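We were asked to recover a plausible sequence for a given structure. The inputs and outputs are reproduced exactly as logged, with field labels preserved.

PROBLEM: sequence recovery
POSITIONS: 329
GIVEN STRUCTURE:
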């Protein structure tokens, strides 16, 4: 469908230098932190642990991550259809996976570029498609909070501070998916600021459209697919620790992985860079895992989850761009 009018959902190119500087700065800090830990621990010991990993073991880790992204892509498709978007399965998977190319960019540009592709291909405005992105992110928060709560219940010992993090994630998910509550929150925020009336009006309109998702089977499908997807990555972390010689029970490994991921997200850094890695190494160390295992385990799981997603996104991104360009030609 032709796109008439300005593309308001496209990322703002006004600050590319600052955004890229922030992104590369965060990556450099994470690399420096892991390098410092590696130097303090001893690169020979870390290298010996990494040498234990076999190609088939790495393939299993990548397959579990791919399963996570596929399940969440199917969730995106189901939510898009529920919203009424005239898009097919491959089209929705293309948008969802392609958005991962911008996972570590400031301002969650991955969501914006997905909205941009939808606008070009369907003519739907940002206000109409925003509930899809909001429900997708809220779904991740909800299932991760539930998964963390389950892991804490089944694990032999708990992680200090994990319960408040799980509660905060669940509260944010509930707020983001309740139309009246979110609309009231937007209204209060506008009254407090007294600025940007058009932006807040659009936000209220998007919040009201969340009623499309207040549907039992839709919510059950979204939560179920998201839960299985994140559990797959938590299980991958458990397998990885076993491959490296650390005896960590399944649910303890899942709780560490989910808690670190949530903690990284709460820092506000793109992709949870820095916070997730620091939390993971710290929690493993508290559980008695030596640094020569916890440091490479953290690096490998982040490479096979976050950076693998970015690699998938970079592969799909040009395909999605070409398809969107053909739709507006």
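RECOVERED SEQUENCE:
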């Amino acid at each position: 469908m032709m796109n008439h009018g300005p593309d308001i959902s496209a990322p703002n190119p006004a600050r590319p230098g600052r955004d890229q500087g922030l992104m590369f700065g965060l990556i450099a800090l994470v690399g420096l932190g892991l390098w410092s830990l590696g130097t303090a621990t001893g690169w020979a010991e870390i290298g010996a642990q990494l040498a234990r990993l076999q190609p088939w073991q790495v393939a299993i880790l990548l397959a579990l991550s791919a399963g996570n992204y596929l399940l969440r892509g199917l969730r995106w498709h189901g939510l898009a259809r529920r919203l009424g978007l005239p898009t097919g399965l491959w089209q929705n998977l293309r948008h969802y996976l392609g958005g991962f190319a911008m996972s570590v960019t400031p301002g969650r540009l991955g969501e914006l570029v997905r909205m941009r592709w939808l606008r070009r291909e369907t003519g739907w405005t940002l206000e109409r498609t925003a509930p899809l992105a909001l429900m997708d992110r809220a779904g991740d928060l909800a299932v991760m909070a539930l998964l963390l709560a389950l892991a804490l219940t089944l694990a032999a010992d708990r992680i200090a501070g994990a319960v408040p993090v799980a509660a905060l994630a669940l509260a944010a998910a509930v707020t983001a998916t309740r139309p009246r509550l979110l609309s009231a929150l937007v209204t209060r925020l506008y009254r407090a600021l007294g600025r940007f009336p058009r932006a807040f009006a659009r936000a209220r309109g998007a919040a009201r459209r969340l009623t499309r998702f207040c549907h039992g089977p839709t919510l059950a499908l979204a939560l179920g697919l998201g839960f299985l997807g994140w559990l797959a990555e938590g299980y991958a972390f458990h397998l990885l620790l076993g491959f490296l010689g650390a005896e960590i029970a399944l649910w303890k490994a899942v709780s560490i992985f989910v808690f670190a991921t949530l903690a990284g997200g709460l820092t506000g850094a793109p992709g949870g860079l820095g916070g997730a890695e620091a939390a993971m190494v710290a929690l493993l160390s508290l559980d008695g895992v030596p640094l020569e295992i916890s440091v490479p385990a953290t690096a490998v799981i982040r490479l096979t989850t976050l950076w693998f997603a970015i690699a998938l996104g970079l592969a799909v991104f040009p395909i999605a761009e070409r398809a969107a360009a053909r739709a507006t030609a």
